[in-house]
Each structure stands twice: as C-alpha cells, then as structure tokens.
Amino acid sequence: MLRFDRRLVHNFDWVMVVLLLLISTMSLASLFSATWNGGPSPSPIFFKQLYFFLFGYAFILLLISIDYSELEMLSYVGYGAICLLLLYTNLFVDSIAGTQRWINLGFFHLQPSEPAKLVLVLVLASSYSSNEYVENGYRLRDIIRPAIITAVPFTLILIQPDLGTALMLAILFVSMTLFAHLRWSTITLLGSTGMGCAVLGWLYGLKDYQRRRIETFLNPESDPMNHGYQIKQSKIAVGSGQGFGKGFMEGTQGHLNFLPERHTDFAFAVWCEELGFFGSLFFLVCFFFMLFWGINIALTARDKFGVYLAFGLVMLIFWQTVINLFMITGMLPVVGIPLPLFSYGGSSLMTTLVAIGILMNIRMRRFQVR
C-alpha cells in the first residue's frame, strides 16, 4: 500500500543518490568506450544498459514509496516464484554455450539466478528476524530451516550449470548466518563440514571446464593460449594503465580485442587501463563508501528485519564486488561474477538497483517505531 509521510521527504537518502549517480556515470562511460566500434554513435549495448539504468531509477522511486516491512510478507511469495522460474529454466530453456540460464521474454533475456540472490536475502532476513534471540548463539538445529531455504535455489542454479552464482548464494547464507550469531561449536562443525564438501565437490561435483578454470588460476602459464588467456590479458590491461591511464577510449587491450568479455566480466579492467591507478582508486572509494553507507543504514534500522535485510543487501553487493575485482587481477579463478552497477547485463543491474532502492527505503524510515 502506498503511503505518504512528510518525514520521508526530510529523510530522503541524498547521499546514496549522489553515490549512485557518480558510479552510474563512470559505468556508462566505461561501457561506451568498451563497446565503441569506431562509428558516429554509441553501440546498441550502450543504449540497452542506459535504458536499464533509467528503468531502474524509476523503479527505485516506486520502491521507496512502499514501506519495506511489507516485503517481509511478500518474501516467500517471491521465493516460490524464483524457484519455479529456475526450475522452468532447467527444464524448458534452450542451452546457450552449454548452460541454461536465460529466459527469452522477447524484449529482454531474464536470468532468474540474479534476482534469486536478492530474494534469498529477503527470505533469510525474514527468517532470522522472526527467531527468538538466543543468548549463546544459534545451535545447528536452529539454522536447518535457513539452510534448506538456501539449498533449493543453490541446487537449481548449480544444475544450469552456474557455479559462480550458486557459490554466491552459499556465501550470502554464511554471511547472514554468522551475523545472526552462532555458537562457536556450531561454527566449528559447519566449517569442518564445508571443508569436507569442498573436497568432495572438487573430486566429484565439478565439471571438467570448471576444474580447468581453477587449475588455470593456480598456474595460468600452464595453458596460456586457452583458459589462462583471459586472466593474462586482464592483468596486462590493469597493469598497463599505470598511474593515470592511457586515456579515455585509448586502451589497446580492449579496443584491439585482446581482452575478452570486456563489457561484462572484465569491464573494470578496461577502466583500469584507460583511467589508471588514480581513476580506479576514485571509483573504488565511491563504491566502497556506498557499501559503508549501507552498513550505516543497517546499524540505524529500527527493527530486526530492517537490520538483517540491510546487512544482507550490503553483503550481496560487497561479495560480488570483491570476487570480480580479485578475478580480473588474477587472485581468483574466472567464475562469471559481474561487478555490480558496472558490468553489462540487465538482470544483474536491475537486481543491484532494487537492492539499493530497498536500502534507501530502510534509511528513510529509520525514524519510525516498530
């Protein structure tokens, strides 16, 4: 239900808006350069991303007009819908490059695994906020329900196969569960179980190309012309930018097509090459200040659901950012995790903008007593 309260205007989150506009401008500038083909106008990819940004901004305005507490009631409906979409994707969608991830809606290719991350945060926030506080921390049996909630979309996404996004769901579950406060005995048991699952996953769960990616990460020189090529070219692009970069639209790795996926997974490598260390530092300061501001929103939220929800949304953006940055610098294997707000992709961009809209919503209603 739409509600108007004059206090919402006074508490409008201008800090988040300014940061979002700064980051969006840098993102579109980088995409313009990465996809420019030498013609008189930007590429169609640039215009598509611009339209997604504009639609996302409009959706944020709608989102902040709705009390975020209503999302708690809708979270399980969204969870059921996402699981059905993931199941439909696995059963009926044609395979593209060996994976089943996108539903063709005609005007838009929906990747259900992207909003699945957002929906999982909503459901886990609802689950943990409704539990009674346990002084010594949650026991193992107390987190069985959240674990099952995570396991269903995790499995459906892993089947596609999309190891990177599936691992993101696991990371979100671990982050929010630790934030909810666990007993040390539970943490020890879960850590041991996780290590055991990792070993079994390496031996029996990974496909050959996924295992090769990890082996290439550990030793890129062992396969320099195939699976190690992306990492090597990305590191060259990042390093060649030096202090102030080669100049906007002057990057050779991107414009001479040495750098693969330069508008998606490796988009930030183009920015590093063209703007250099200081240009990259400016972007990262803006981005991580936005995440710091999100943590501040979590700390000032007036109810448990708002606290857990804001923290989970910040973790959603934070972990994707860290993984992508480590990936393009060769510190992690290539797992297909986009840089939020920066990599091209409608589903990823809309998911991140919705997350930011919800954070603004929580900030604007911090004066309300629950």
TrEMBL record:
PANTHER family: CELL CYCLE PROTEIN, PEPTIDOGLYCAN GLYCOSYLTRANSFERASE MRDB
Catalyses which reaction(s): [GlcNAc-(1->4)-Mur2Ac(oyl-L-Ala-gamma-D-Glu-L-Lys-D-Ala-D-Ala)](n)-di-trans,octa-cis-undecaprenyl diphosphate + beta-D-GlcNAc-(1->4)-Mur2Ac(oyl-L-Ala-gamma-D-Glu-L-Lys-D-Ala-D-Ala)-di-trans,octa-cis-undecaprenyl diphosphate = [GlcNAc-(1->4)-Mur2Ac(oyl-L-Ala-gamma-D-Glu-L-Lys-D-Ala-D-Ala)](n+1)-di-trans,octa-cis-undecaprenyl diphosphate + di-trans,octa-cis-undecaprenyl diphosphate + H(+)
Family according to the record: Belongs to the SEDS family. MrdB/RodA subfamily.
Pfam families: FTSW_RODA_SPOVE
Protein name: Peptidoglycan glycosyltransferase RodA
Main enzyme class: transferase
Pathway: Cell wall biogenesis; peptidoglycan biosynthesis
Main subcellular location of this protein, as a coarse class: membrane
Any GO CC annotation of this UniProt entry: plasma membrane
TM segment ranges: 12-33, 45-64, 76-96, 165-182, 189-206, 275-295, 307-329, 341-362
Gene Ontology terms: biological process: cell division; cell wall organization; peptidoglycan biosynthetic process; regulation of cell shape
GO molecular function terms noted in the UniProt entry: lipid-linked peptidoglycan transporter activity; peptidoglycan glycosyltransferase activity
Membrane topology value: Multi-pass membrane protein
InterPro entries in alphabetical order: Cell_cycle_FtsW-rel_CS, FtsW/RodA, RodA/MrdB
Subcellular localization, as worded in the UniProt entry: Cell membrane; Membrane
Job description of the protein: Peptidoglycan polymerase that is essential for cell wall elongation.
Keywords: Cell membrane, Cell shape, Cell wall biogenesis/degradation, Glycosyltransferase, Membrane, Peptidoglycan synthesis, Transferase, Transmembrane, Transmembrane helix
The EC number(s) this enzyme carries: 2.4.99.28
